[in-house]
Amino acid sequence: MAERELLCKLRVKDKYRHLTITAQENSELCLTIAETFDEDFCLYYIPVMPIYQLWQNEAHVPCAELLTAVCAYLYAGAGISYYRDEDTYMYANYEVMEDWINDDGDDGEEDEYVLEKADLENAKIQGDFIQAKMMETGFRQSLDSLITNFKAGSAFEKECLKVAQTCLQLEKDFPNANLFQHASLQDYEVEDYEDHDVGMQEYISFIGSVNDNLSERLKNMVNDDFNERARYQEPEIITFFNKAQPAYMNELAYEQRAFRLIDDLCTLLYRKP
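The structure corresponding to this sequence follows.
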């Protein structure tokens, strides 16, 4: 295909718009706009072990119920992968860590082995507990009533309520949306690993913890892997102007709000009492 392209990047509020003008086979010019987020790449890893700890304290069970219902939506509704599910990126990472921990134990690093082995078992047990809670019949749908009956006293409880309300409103405004519905296309035929994109399901996930003995090892594994790859998959809307288009709509509005919800949830869990 004979092709001439004029590329330019326009910054719009909260967005990048990539403009391409291409000469098609019939020699007609076609304007294409690819719209993405105006944000730096970051990891969206939601730790569930802090929620498990809330479940173990009777005074914090109402908070645990709220946050577990939020996670249930992000898991079953938004489609975020869970590290205890096989065939997920995080499940594979935890398996690799388990092999490394066992190898370290064979090499005589007894103290470190005991600590990391305990953290790994806790990640499995507590992760399975939270997942079972999320998948209880009707639990995800109970978020509205949980919010109605919740009594917020402390600053932490008020933040839990705020996150839950944000989640409920998001689901009401976008009842059939999924976080990956506009994921940019990936080229699965490339041969070199460094030419593969970092998939959205790889940098958005539930994990065990971010502050135990495994966290640094997991962070290094992920960073080493992602540093080998040049690009990352992200929400993207592509519009072809080879015919009249309707008035502009923010088709990434759901993704923007979902990412903010994840940010707020993670911030809350990182400073759990």
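The first helix runs from residue 49 to 55.
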